[in-house]
Every structure is written in C-alpha cells, then in structure tokens.
Amino acid sequence: MTSRLTPTAYLDHIRSESARFRAVLAETDPTAPVPTAPDWTAADLLWHVAAEVQHFWTYVLETRPAAPTEETYDELERPKDATYQDLLAHFDELNARFIKTLEETGPEEPTWSWSKDQTAGFTYRRQAHEILIHRLDAELTAGAVTPLDPALAADGIDELLDVFYGGKPEWASFAGGEHYVRVDAIDTDTQTWVQLGLVSGTRPNGDRLEDEPDLSVVPHEEIPAGTEPDVVIEGTAADLNAWLWRRRDDEGIQVTGDKDVYDRFRALTNQPITDD
User: Fold this and answer.
1) Would you say the CATH fold of 164-269 matches that of 7-146?
2) Helices (H), 63-179
C-alpha cells in the first residue's frame, strides 16, 4: 500500500528537484534536443518549467480559490531576444516566487485545480512529481541521469495511475470489471491495485461516452476478499515511475499473469500526458 508524503516533504522535493533541474540545464547546450520531448530543446524545457508550469501554479495559489481563465491569467511571452542566461535568470526568479508562495499557503486551503482535490495540497503533490519528471527530462538531455528518490517515486506511481489515468470528470461513471492489475514497487514494499472497467457519461457539450475502456485505482481495503490480481508488474519504484511516465523502457520490470489483461492495461497507460 502506498502512503502519501507530508506537505513538508513535497515542498522539500520541489526545492531539491528544482535545484537539480536548474544545475543540469545550466551546464547543457541550450540547443540540445530533449529525448522525451522531440520538439523541444534544453532551452524550451527550461522555459516550460519556469513560465508555463511554476508561474501558472503560482498564479493559482495567489488568486485562490478562483479558477484561472483566459481573461484573468496572462501567459508569459517568451522574449524573442532572450539569451540562455536570461532564461536561467527567469527560472531563478519564477522558481523562488513559486516556492515562497507555497511556503505561505497552507495545504488545506481551498484552491482551484483540474482534479477533484480542490485544496493547495494538490499543488504540493502534483508539482513535486512534475519537477521530478522534468528533472529526469533535463538529465536525459544532458546524458547525466541520477537516481529518483524511492519514496517520491512510489507515491508518483499512485498519483499517475489514480489522478491522471484513473481520474474521472464529474459527468462520468465507472463500472469496474472483474480484472485487476497490481503494480508492486519492490524496494519500497508498496502496491497499487488497478481495476479495469468501462466508463460512460455525457460530456458538457452533449456528446455521449458509452462503455469506453478505462481503469480505476482501488484502495486495498476495498478489494474483495480472496481476490488475486490477473497481472502483477514488479520493479523498483524509480523504474516503475519512469516507465509509466514514458521516460524509460521496461528493462528490469517483471510482468507475470494474463497477457490480454496486461495489454489492456498498457493500452490505457501507454499514451502521452499533457496536464501539468
């Protein structure tokens, strides 16, 4: 079973992962391509994290609990004549403001998010994982990968499967089926149970979604007694997290069980993620 980190731990990770991200990119050719985002260079990655991610969530926290809109939130425009040193300075400024804003915001405070969790705690957790994965992007760009923190990576497995792939809008309903996949992080002794099923509902624009394949993370205590997973996926927390985020291959990850169920699971999880 996975356990959430404390808000203080998430904030510490945001600080340390941001520092590592910055240090790696400061020593990287700004034109170097990012292997995990082929259309980006190192300079694009640096701008993305500073201006498109951390600046945005700073605004969300500063204006809580109002939802950002096109009318209220002004996206930063990247200066056309900015040097790489200018972009690094932008990162320093925006990152410092983001961390300071988090420090001044209690995790329980009502705050907009795109998830069901409408507290600042969502931003603490989401942004710890966001900068962790983008730090890995920076290291892959530089060819200097270092280990991911096991506890944060284990929590990241749960967050990715539960919030991104398993999250449902209010208009959708999930009907769980009989098949389960269990993801085991062997170094942290944590497990995430995933139930395959179907989702239905009517979108706000009137379009109907009917019995589309989907998944949902199920708490251990809600698993029916005697249930055995159809598939078990095992690896270290760091390997599993990076693999699920499409940042590495499946070398060292062990899969046992029903191939059809595994293929259905991978069809639902092996796709790009765009939300920050």
Assistant:
1) no
2) 84-103, 120-142, 150-159
pLDDT grade for 93, boundaries at 50, 70 and 90: very high
Reported as type and span, the H/E element at residue 11 is helix 7-26
Contact 245, 235 (CB under 8 A): no
101/188 Cα distance (integer angstroms): 31
Domain 7-146: top CATH class: mainly alpha
Cis peptide before 35 (omega within 30 of 0): no
Q: Which two tokens stand for residue 101?
A: 């804003």
**Which position has the higher pLDDT, 259 or 209?**
259
Domain boundaries, the chain: 7-146, 164-269
Its CATH class, for the domain covering 164-269, is alpha beta
pLDDT of residue 276: 54
Rounded to two decimals, what is the model's pTM? 0.94
Q: List pLDDT tens digits, range 27-40.
A: 999 999 999 999 99
Structure tokens at 139: 């290291």
Which residues touch 29 (CB under 8 Å, ≥6 apart)? 42
